[in-house]
Amino acid sequence: MRVVIARCAARYTGRLSAHLPLATRAIMVKADGSVLLHSDGGSYKPLNWMSPPCTMRVVAVSEEAAARGVAEVWVVQHDKTDDRLEIELHDVLADTEHELGVDPGLIKDGVEAHLQELLAEQIALLGDGHTLVRREYMTAIGPVDILARDRSGAAVAVEIKRRGEIDGVEQLTRYLELLNRDPLLAPVTGVFAAQEIKPQARVLAEDRGIRCLVLDYESMRGNEDLSSRLF
User: Are residues 93 and 124 located together in one domain of the fold?
Assistant: First the structure.
C-alpha cells in the first residue's frame, strides 16, 4: 500500500461529478488498484475514491495548472466505465509504501456468523431453486460468506452483514471481480444481504448489478432446524 500525505485537489467525473477543493489529505493507493482520498475526520469513509479495475497514471502538468501551484497530476481511469478521478498534488508532505501481505479477512461477530449459518440452511430465501455450494468460499482476498447457484445453475456470491453499508458493497464488488475471472464459475452475480441496508448502500449495489436482500433475523431463527444440534 502507498500512502501519500499531500495538499491536493480532486475532481471526479462519470456517473456523477464531484469536486474536492485544495486541502491537506491522505491518499491511499492499494495493491488491488483502488485509490482513496481521506480527510482527518468522517470516520472510515473516504471523501472520494475509485474502485478497481482501474488504471492510475501520472500526466504532464499544464502551464495553467503549474501557475496554480500544481506539482503533479494523477489520473485514475476506470477500465470498464467513463468514471475518472483526477488528483492535483500541490505539496507532498509524506510518501511511503508498505507491504501489508495477505489479510486473513474480517472475523464475524456472533450475530453475523449466525446469520450466515441460518441463510445457508434456508438458502431458498435467495429465491426458488437456489442451492448451497458452500459457506466461506475462499478467494485470494478472503472468503465469500456464501456461494450458491440459482435455479439455472449460475453462481451467486452472497455477502452478509448485520448493517449493510457502502463498505460491504465494496467488499462484495471485489469478491465478484475475482470470482468472475474463474471460467468455471463465471458469470457470478452478487447478493448483498443484511438485517438493515442503508439507502446509499442500496443505490450503489443496484448500480453495480448487485441484488439486495433484507434478512429478518428473528424469523430465520424461528425457522431454524434444531434437529442436528446437540445443545
Answer: no
Mean pLDDT of 213-227: 79
CB 34 within 8 A of CB 51: yes
Domain tally, the chain: 2
Dump pLDDT digits (tens) for 133-157: 999 999 888 899 999 999 999 999 9
**117 plus 149 within the same structural domain:** yes
Residue 118 C-alpha cell reads as 441460518
pLDDT in tens, 65-108: 999 999 999 999 999 899 999 999 999 999 999 988 877 766 65
* Grid coordinates belonging to 183: 471460467
The domain in which residue 133 lies consists of 110-222
